[in-house]
Write a structure and sequence with these properties.
This protein is about 25% helix and about 35% strand. The protein has five helices and eight strands. Strand 5 (about 95-100), helix 4 (about 110-125) and strand 6 form a beta-alpha-beta unit. The termini are far apart.
């Protein structure tokens, strides 16, 4: 029996340094590792990571759902996976919640802004959504900055609604509509 190598991800849309590809089942272990990293758990305001079994079941069920799209974020030049971006669509109002995970070993390189921009571009030009929104914890300033730079705008604040390193913090609500996106240089 031979081991078949993982198929290289195919870019769906590309930016300057990154591209979006379809999430791949053979990458589940990496996706799980990224999501269970302590900094990711804290960033999501969670108390503990999700077990492998729960993650695996969620991944497999979401791949067949028409209202959820998980992208693998890859480098544009060499297709190295650096994170995931997801859109969870509420079809009744044609909007989606956005979530992003950058692999721990790829953080601090400015990937969050570009991955978010690419996902917003897909959301508005391909998926024809009206609005994309997200929740982010106020102390997560790097994420807040990346989201605002990509085109999100302040939409509200839930006071003391989450945990950050054991203390109560505000949860920020950000949203984006097509007109919020910076004009592309042509």
């Amino acid at each position: 029996m031979t081991n078949t190598p993982c198929a290289a991800p195919v870019a769906l849309c590309s930016g300057e340094r990154l591209a979006l590809a379809l999430a791949r089942e053979e990458m589940m272990r990496d996706y799980h590792r990224w999501e269970t990293d302590p900094a990711t758990v804290v960033g999501f305001g969670a108390r503990w990571p999700v077990s492998w079994e729960v993650f695996q079941a969620r991944f497999r069920s979401s791949h067949t759902a028409s209202h959820y799209q998980l992208f693998e974020v890859i480098t544009a030049e060499s297709a190295i996976p650096v994170g995931t971006a997801a859109l969870s669509v509420d079809q009744s109002v044609n909007s989606a919640e956005y979530t992003l995970v950058i692999a721990p070993e790829h953080r601090g390189r400015g990937y969050a802004t570009e991955a978010t921009s690419l996902t917003l571009e897909w959301a508005f030009t391909i998926a024809s959504l009206n609005t994309v929104w997200l929740e982010v914890l106020a102390p997560h300033t790097a994420a807040v900055h990346a989201y605002l730079k990509a085109g999100f705008r302040d939409a509200g604040r839930l006071r003391s609604a989450a945990l950050w390193h054991g203390r109560r913090v505000d949860k920020l609500l950000l949203d984006c509509v097509p007109g919020d996106l910076p004009e592309k240089k042509r």
